[in-house]
Amino acid sequence: MSLAVSPAQTMETKRHAPLHLPMIIPAIIISILSLIPLGFIVWIAITSGWDTVRDLVLRPKVAELLFNTLILVALTLPIAIALTVSLAWLIERTNLPFARLWSWLMVAPLAIPAFVHSYAWASVMPTLHGLPGAVMVSILAYFPFLYLPIAAQLRRLDPTLEETAASLGHTPIAIFITVILPQLRLAICGGALLIGLHLLAEYGLFVLMRFDTFATAIVDQFQAVYNGPAANLLGGVLVLLCLVLLRLEVFLRGDERYARVGSGAARHAPKWRLGAFTWIAALLPTALTLLAVGVPIFTLTRWLISGGAGVWRLDGIVPALVQTAALAVGGALITTLAALPIAWLSIRAPSRVQRALEACHYYVGALPGVIVALALVTITVRVALPLYQTMATLLLAYLLMFLPRALVGLRASIAQAPIELERAAVSLGKPPLVAIWKTTLRLAAPGAAASAALVALGIANELTGTLMLAPNGTRTLAMRFWSYTSELNFAAAAPYAVLMVVLSLPLVLLLRLEADRESKP
Amino acid sequence: MSFVTLDNVTKRYGKSVAVTGLNLTVPAGSRTAIVGPSGSGKTTLLRLIAGFESPDQGSIALGDTMLAEGTMSVPAHRRGIGYVAQEGALFPHLTLAANIGFGIARNSPDRHARIAELMQQVGLAPSMHDRRPHQLSGGQQQRVALARAMARQPKLMLLDEPFSALDAGLREAMRDMVGDVLSTAGITTILVTHDQAEALSFADHLAVLRDGVVVQAGPPQDLYLRPKDAQTARFLGDAIILQARLEDGFAHTILGSVPTDTPSRRGNATIMLRPEQLELTSAGQTDPSSTTSLGRIVGRTFRGSTWRLLIEHLPASSAGLRLPSLALETSSIFTIETPSLAPLEIGATVGIQIVGTAHILA
Questions:
Q1: Do A167 and B77 touch (CB under 8 A)?
Q2: pLDDT of A429-461, one tens digit each?
Q3: Which of A447, B12, B69, B188 is deepest in the core (most CB within 10 A)?
Q4: How far apart are the C-alpha atoms of A498 and A119, rounded to whole Å?
Q5: A30-87 pLDDT per residue, tens
Q6: Phi and psi (nearest 5°) for A99?
Q7: pLDDT confidence of B252, banded at 50, 70, 90?
Q8: Could you please report the per-residue DSSP string of B109-173?
Q9: Which residues from B are below 8 Å from A183, CB to CB?
């Protein structure tokens, strides 16, 4: 995504440095805010003292959590990778019937929040729990994160490479292993990292599957003892796990370039004929659709029917909807605004300082919501008590969690607005900020709106951080759903789940269209 | 001896027909060029021979081996035919050496020696061994692609416009290099290109493809001087096409009379001359009794070593010959290149003399 800057341009940006000052200062402020959760963990580790750390971290319970979390990741990722690579290959590269329909259905599970997947399975099959349940529901809830990039990359592959390999005597299977798979490496690493981070951060899914991970243990500790050192130190271990995962991905990804060498227009790869295997092959996407989309829809329908009109208690639903919408829209506006300075700088004035600031923005996005919440609780309690359990703190948490999401979309849309317009506006006597506002931001508005929508949808389904930080009396859709589910009142929870799914549908549409656009050669 | 034989091959994509009833023989040890405008089916033809596609009808044979016949088709990986794609198609995830060694068995004892030998054959320095494809220039990528295709010692090599992505200067050098390397190795080669100059200079056997059929095949010089029809004539180079009356082995045209390559033909016909068959003389030196006709220079473009002149033919006022409908096919204007040493000014009148023989088209 980095833009090449010619020497002439760099000189010019230096000469016009004052133009950037109004953007650099807010970018620095946001970066410092972004570092709060990480700084909090470091501070906890330093101030706790070795004895506390030994007492609270080096104990069998933590070892069990560590084992659980690691085995969860170690089982989920390979299965999900094998499954999605086969699915994507079947759908993109063979004559499997209804390929277009399947390719949409493979993204559809994203419209269902992970804890709703879990809720559906818990009520359909109460015996499913522990590690097998956690692995299965995780795969069903998160496999689209792998499917999207892998399918896009498969569409982008240059078929000439495969033909060349065939002319060099490689069998189709050998070609798949030596030519196709290596080119999917980046897509697999990226998708697997995303799933891995979700596995570390997810709370609701694993509670319903009765499977203890660091995230569930932290929330439990936190709810037992507010601001206790135990939760904070567990958070420290969780952050370490996240860092290990991030490093592992960087290591596995390598720094190689897998783009096409050369430029010619890529042909579409020929599709393999499945012949007699067609119907056997069609079983895979059918089964996955039934499990990942069919089961939640079936469960929700069943609860809605058995609950009848009684579960649509408007005195509960309407306030939850209004609160969720208000938080989502407010949070999205603040987050998009906060992402603006660094997004603008990364396009208009790339530099080492800017890259460091941007890294700060991105790092927090990789940290689980529990960590952000823990940090904000501790800091408000110790330093700024009036802010404890206020809307302001909750919105700040959303800002920190969803900043990277806003940044990606904003950068792309700012990159499409020509810098000449800004310069023309300045030369016509507009002050720098006004010039940016009237030209670039005007043109970037549609893209900014799309990324704000992504943030809003993320906030609407956020559970963990909201549970920990929301002021008394706050009842979002996710919170309502969660409290009914915790009381095992599955019927009363169903309307809230349906509303969350409906709200998430646009997100799925956006993600899918984005992937389509990127895979155009 | 024919080495590759295509017999009545047809290939359709949905409703559009790419190749239809195509017959082609490629002599053993030859450098065959298949040339045609885009959409003529030449790339499909190459892909059929390589085995990336199978024909709907007809048969393809390599020596005594049948590669495709009816519904039977030997898959590409069992054909042992070398293939170099348009932009090299190097595997981006492998080093230069791993790319070249891709077709050599991993446990083969002489793998490293073979790679080194191939690199030397195509002129790649040993120091580039561990480079990645994106660190190579266009020419180097093509060298790697050629070495990689030669690694399995194929008897037949297919080149799919391998030089078209290179810039002009490099293109010629690469073409010569590739031709030399393949000839030395004794590999029969088929080159597909839309560039007639490239085809003429590379090949010792040329096939012109149009609308999915081979219009004409043979030695390049033959095709250049004796094309079957006006379209082929123009495709292979600038051509001057005239109406003529044939008599006693001569073609009488508005540009004068010229011997024909088929003396027995009589009556009206269309003939073709290559521009280099026209010699210009200054009008003052023209001998009025000769067969010279007159033209006027109406435009010129400097091209370095030559001038490209736009010449309008002047109707012969003194010539006693009144020929029916002997106009130039399009208009009475044609272009000729002359050495730039003696520039001719716009407006000058020149004498036009025809040398060589005229080729009768139809």
A1: yes
A2: 788 778 888 888 888 887 788 788 888 888 888
A3: B188
A4: 12
A5: 888 888 888 888 888 888 778 888 887 788 888 999 999 999 999 999 999 999 999 9
A6: -60, -40
A7: confident
A8: TTHHHHHHHHHHHTT--GGGTT--GGGS-HHHHHHHHHHHHHTT--SEEEEESTTTTS-HHHHHH
A9: 92-93
Q: Which residues of A touch B78 (CB under 8 A)?
A: 169
CA angle A8, A13, A19 (to 5 degrees): 155
With an 8 Å Cβ cutoff, are A261 and B83 in contact?
no
Strands of B278-282's sheet in order across: B278-282, B349-354, B293-302, B306-314, B333-339
Query: Distance between CA A371 and CA A365 in Å, rounded?
Result: 11
Instruction: Go through the domains of chain B in sequence order and give each one's CATH number.
Output: 2-230 (3.40.50.300), 238-360 (2.40.50.100)
Residue type, B331: S
Q: Which CA distances in Å does A246 have to A193, A241, A287?
A: 7, 9, 32
Q: What angle do CA A308, A312, A316 make, to 5 degrees?
A: 150
Are residues A264 and B80, on separate chains, in Cβ contact within 8 Å?
no
Cβ–Cβ < 8 Å for B220, B207: no
Q: Rounded CA gap, B13 and A161, in Å? A: 22
Which 3 state secondary structure label does DSSP give B7?
A: strand
> CB distance B92–A256 less than 8 Å?
yes
In this structure, are residues A33 and A375 in contact, taking their beta carbons and an 8 Å threshold?
A: no
- Hey, are the CB atoms on A168 and B132 less than 8 Å from each other? no
User: Residue A130: which region, alpha, beta or left (left: phi > 0; alpha: psi -120 to 50)?
Assistant: left
- Cα–Cα distance, A142 to A242 (Å, whole number): 17
* For B85, nearest residue in chain A (alpha carbons): A160
Q: What is the pLDDT of residue A69?
A: 92
- Number of other residues whose CB lies within 10 A of the CB of residue A240: 12
CA distance A495 to A506: 19
Task: Tell me how long chain B is.
Answer: 362
Of B50, B90, B158, the CB nearest to A261: B90
According to DSSP, the residues that pair with B4 across neighbouring strands are B26, B62
Residues of A in contact with B88 (CB under 8 A): 261-262
Closest Cα in chain B, distance from residue A266 (Å): 11
Residues 6+ positions from A162 with CB-CB distance below 8 Å: A175, A179, A180, A269
DSSP string, B205-224: EEEEEETTEEEEEE-HHHHH
CATH 3.90.220.20 fits A35-257+281-294, yes or no: no
Identity of the residue numbered B206? L
Give the integer Cα–Cα distance in Å for A364 and A373. 12
Phi-psi category of residue A260: left, alpha or beta, with phi > 0 → left and psi -120 to 50 → alpha: beta
Provide the token pair at A280: 């056997």
Helix (H, G, I), strand (E, B) or coil at B258: strand
Cβ of B91 and A172 within 8 Å? no
* Closest to B193 in 3D by CA, of B38, B20, B24, B48: B38
* Single-letter code of the amino acid located at B255: L
Q: What is the Cα–Cα distance from A7 to A438, expressed in whole angstroms?
A: 27
Domain spanning A312-521: CATH 1.10.3720.10: yes
Q: Is the pLDDT of residue B330 over 70?
A: no
Name residue A149's amino acid: P
CB contact under 8 A, A259 and B85: no
pLDDT at B158: 94
Ranges of CATH 1.10.3720.10 domains, chain A: 35-257+281-294, 312-521
* Helix A352-366 × helix A314-348 angle, to 10°: 160
Shortest alpha-carbon distance between residue B153 and chain A (Å): 10
Distances, alpha carbon B301 to alpha carbons A73, B237, B297, B347, in Å: 71, 18, 11, 14
